[in-house]
Design brief:
Length: 308
């Protein structure tokens, strides 16, 4: 039976606690800036609660919103490793889910790594369900060969740079957005702002990203982004128009082949990827690229709707 340390106090975040929170997050996720960055704590959150044992911060929990995905309320709880058997997570969770004015009846969403077994056990005990797995990694572009399948009809392929030089961006943005929405049906994105619509083209590598089209219709696209790492590209959203789903495998291979050719001709050596298990187009990459699927990043949801 878990024993809660005494005395224990749970206090609302204030700025003076930020250094202690930063230290706690480093203890929970050592040298993992990307994971720490996912969780919004302190001024980035709607509410952050801190669990203190005497003058030591031993746990932190927060609720936050995502303006691009407003239908869910996000939650994160982190407990100092030495206190993970002390039910601190349960105490923080109970106070967070009582914040009905913030949650407003929305589905709760969180994420963690597949190897964070204690965290997963806690979330499953509260009723959270795994919605998707996200595979993150990097592989060498050297000597990669993509087995090609020929599309059933002649299609034109062009880089985003070339395509957008003579075409308006709206049709391409519409196709990209529709594919993105299809992969996020569990938590749809807002479409009310031009910012949300054009976010897909922010920081995109327009010369490494390609689009396939006929004389009167866009067929498929592959978004590739600049990376902070040298000689590296980052795989973004890839998608195929509804009317071409039968040719999906061939279209995706053609798009990737063009990106590989661009990379090899321009000195790029690696491709970073982030592939969701529920994404029908990105999942096609698993069939012909050296994608590592474990460990993976897990997205979990808890719905107030019994049909969820």
């Amino acid at each position: 039976m878990a024993i809660t340390p005494d005395p224990l106090s749970i206090r609302v975040y204030d700025q003076q606690q930020q250094a202690a929170i930063d230290q706690l997050m480093q203890q929970c996720w050592p040298d993992d800036i990307d994971t720490i960055g996912y969780y919004r704590i302190g001024e980035q959150s709607e509410l952050t609660l801190c669990a203190w044992h005497q003058e030591q911060l031993i746990g932190v929990g927060s609720l936050w919103n995502n303006r691009f995905h407003p239908q869910h309320c996000y939650i994160g709880i982190h407990v100092q490793p030495a206190y993970q058997q002390a039910a601190i997570d349960q105490l923080l969770y109970a106070q967070l889910i009582a914040q009905t004015s913030i949650i407003q009846g929305r589905t709760l969403q969180t994420a963690t790594w597949s190897h964070a077994q204690q965290t997963l056990n806690f979330l499953h005990a509260q009723g959270f369900q795994i919605i998707k797995q996200t595979y993150l990694g990097e592989f060498s572009l050297l000597d990669i060969e993509i087995p090609q399948l020929e599309p059933a009809q002649d299609l034109t392929i062009a880089s985003f740079e070339a395509y957008l030089s003579s075409n308006q961006p709206e049709p391409l943005l519409k196709l990209i957005n529709s594919c993105y929405q299809a992969t996020h049906s569990y938590n749809p994105a807002t479409q009310t702002t031009s910012e949300a619509q054009t976010a897909f083209l922010t920081d995109i590598h327009a010369a490494a990203s390609f689009v396939l089209y006929t004389a009167d219709q866009l067929v498929g696209f592959n978004c590739i982004y600049h990376s902070t790492a040298a000689q590296t590209l980052e795989q973004g959203l890839i998608g195929v128009a509804n009317g071409y789903s039968v040719q999906q495998a061939a279209i995706i291979r053609v798009l990737l082949q063009k990106t590989m050719q661009f990379a090899q001709h321009n000195g790029y050596q690696s491709l970073r990827y982030e592939i969701d298990s529920i994404d029908p187009w990105a999942s096609e990459l698993l069939t012909f690229l050296p994608i590592i699927t474990q460990p993976c990043w897990l997205t979990l949801c808890l719905s107030h709707n019994p049909e969820f």
